[in-house]
Fold each of these.
Amino acid sequence: MADSVRIGLLGRGTVGAAFADLLAARAAAVEAATGRRPELAGTLTRSEGDFGEILERSDVVVELIGGTDPARAFVIDALRAGRPVVTANKQLLAQHGEELFGIAREAGVQLRFEAAVAGVIPIVRVIQESFGVTEIDKVFGIVNGTTNFILSEMAASGAGYEDAVARAQELGYAEADPSDDVSGADAAAKMAILARLAFHTPVDFDGVSYEGIERVTPDDLAYAKELGLSLKLLGVAERRDGGISVRVFPCFLYGGHPLAPVGGPFNAVMVESEAITEVTMSGPGAGGVQTASAVLGDLVSVLAGETPLPDAETSLPLVADVSSSFYLHLEVADRPGVLAKVARILGENEISVKSFVQRGIGDDARLAMVVHECLESRFAAAVEEIAELDDLRSPPRSIRVIEEEFV
Ligand SMILES: NC(=O)c1ccc[n+]([C@@H]2O[C@H](COP(=O)([O-])OP(=O)(O)OC[C@H]3O[C@@H](n4cnc5c(N)ncnc54)[C@H](OP(=O)(O)O)[C@@H]3O)[C@@H](O)[C@H]2O)c1
């Protein structure tokens, strides 16, 4: 009979329960792949189990509690006790990754976290292993399925933001309190982890700037459609000006962009590098069973042996001001000279217009345009100046645009 491997399961909620079921269902396959038969050594929830006893009985610890407290302390204790750890906890990795990587290295045990980023897409493995020695220039994509569903719903049905959130909650794609997702914080934590792995540099989660989708209106989506654009919440981590930029923001994409057709609760991540050009992977963004499957994959990897632990080789600064292309939406009085004033302000800030749509609404007019790439600080200055015009009927609205047109 094959040796057993005893799994200490911390957390038995959506993912933990699915993992326990999957582990039982796939035990024979795990044994065939690794030569070891997995069995649960114990489960910890708020009302069941004792962490010390479970640790004592375990060969591997699977952390599916979430959050940083008490998960951080449990993971540290497990690593220090020489137990490899598998976790799906993005907050923990984004905020304490450096500390945990150091402890894992010191203890000579593995810390695996594939399920923490981009759902089922094996992006951590690909960056760490397949592209481990490739100089990556950019990792970006849709890393939050909840917001992608909400935006898809708004675009498809013309629904308002609140209705689309309610629909996402009804279908189980959004939690009762969706603020972590819709604010962009969840995606920011994932991008911090991906940037850390891709650029081999510590990434301070507090330095990751993020904007969410709370202020997106059906109008933005309707106008964007006319300009051939679709809206996504994007996470972008890239090398810029000798440093790195890690950001999350709502962004319009042209129809030919590989991420444009990624709809519903799906995720997609692109990796760019001179050596590999561009790779895109997409798949389900969350879900108990899907996430559990990524956790089980990590368990098999732990049992199969060594992987390079992410070591910080460099220390790259976070670059604050970068260039982007923008969509700008203005509601103005429909009278002569207004467009000229807007054009003058844009021109003085060296911002040029790529495409433009105007629609009359009674005595007013709506102007929607896409401007070419410019420094974000310059664009912000121009928008501030435009907002001061007497002709404005409501505050200007702007959203970033990925300008490249893929064919
Ligand atoms: N849900 C997804 O689709 C998804 C996707 C990707 C990643 N993840 C990540 O997976 C992890 C688990 O998420 P989940 O959705 O399964 O969470 P969940 O449904 O809220 O389950 C959390 C589990 O942890 C237990 N727990 C909470 N606080 C505890 C404490 N202080 N001591 C001991 N046990 C405690 C809970 O115990 P009780 O049962 O007693 O409440 C519950 O069993 C998180 O890191 C999450 O970010 C989830």
Amino acid sequence: MLESPQKSLIVSLHDAHPGSHAQIAEQVEFLATYGITRCSILVVPEFHHGGSLLKDRNFCDTVSGWQARGHEIVLHGYFHDRRESPPEKLSTLYCARLYTNREAEFLDLPKETARQRLERGRALFASLGWRATGFVAPAWLMASDLPNLIAEMGFAYTTRVGEIIPLLPGLNRIKSSQSLCYSTRAGWRRFASALWNKYLYGRLRETDLVRLSLHPRDLEFPLMRRQIDQILRASLKRGFHPTTYGDYVAR
Ligand SMILES: [Zn+2]
């Protein structure tokens, strides 16, 4: 990617679905108090096989409102679980069980199954007027050939935890940048996350891109909330400009 004089801050809100409606809405409001009104919101069509998000009109209206106000809506998996995934091999066991708590839906799906889920997700979004130019796999974990399939299907980009991958012809090349991201499942994980993100932010603030990925429960923990507040304040003070993934890859 060409060097840009502008420094960018991309905040992404992961795992939006009817069950996390209130938490994501709180995050959107929290960010707005910093003047951050452009985020990438990652929406799951049928979270954990719990039925289509279409069943919750209130949630759909909220998401449409976010898009109307300048946020980007991103397709984030289809089920966000591994219920119909192939049995785990030793090579995928770490990612599937330990790292993600069995949410790496697109880690090893057969290509045709992956294509069908992407098409279903995109059609669902289109029926609601949501422009899904990007796709992000649950836990950022994808089979190595999945970006090719996503590109074939016309998505503009995908991301991994360590990079942004533009997919349309003429877009800039892969941008390496590690996302800040918290693990909140246990006290020791929260403590380790805070140490890691403090270290990582110290490096990122010297670059031209800060990515901050939030999950629904992150603001519930005072340790996380304090650090997120510090990172946002410091980034804005240093001149990082809030944007979305879609706008970042298209510029
Ligand atoms: Zn997710």
